[in-house]
Amino acid sequence: MRPVWLPDGTRIAFSCNRKGHFRLYQKAANGVGDERLLFESETEEQVESWSPYGKYLACLQRDPERQNSANIWILPLAVRQKSFLFILKSEVEECDSSFLGT
């Protein structure tokens, strides 16, 4: 669901519900090799956008406690770091995030 190409065109990030709920994956854009699970949690995740140089991935994480509620999280990809909340939790669904830059 919602594939997003890395700005240099070499990789694709996408969401897929292979394990019962949506998780974040990436794969080489040319189709070579296996896909790689990027993040695993008990919530639904949806890919939003890559940062310009591919160091971060913005994703939407649905709140299982509140219907129609989601928050934007940033997932660092260059090093093993925990994802972090980009926008404070609110009563509305934040979505359609994108990174600015060249």
Note down, in words, how this protein is organized:
- With 102 residues, the protein is an all-beta fold.
- The chain has one domain.
- It has strands at residues 4-5, 11-16, 23-28, 36-39, 45-50, 56-62, 70-76, 84-85.
- The strands form two sheets. It has a four-stranded antiparallel β-sheet, with no helix packed on it. It has a four-stranded antiparallel β-sheet with strand order 5-6-7-8, with no helix packed on it.
- The model has no long low-confidence stretch (mean pLDDT 78).
Properties at a glance:
globular, 102 residues, four-stranded antiparallel sheet, mainly beta, 0% helix
The SS-based structural class is mainly beta
Round the mean pLDDT to the nearest integer and report it.
78
**Unreliably modeled segments:** none
Helix content: under 10%
Task: Write a brief structural summary.
This protein is mostly beta strands and 102 residues long. It has strands spanning 4-5, 11-16, 23-28, 36-39, 45-50, 56-62, 70-76, 84-85.
Topology (elements, then pairings):
Elements: E1 4-5, E2 11-16, E3 23-28, E4 36-39, E5 45-50, E6 56-62, E7 70-76, E8 84-85
Antiparallel strand pairs: 1-2, 2-3, 3-4, 5-6, 6-7, 7-8
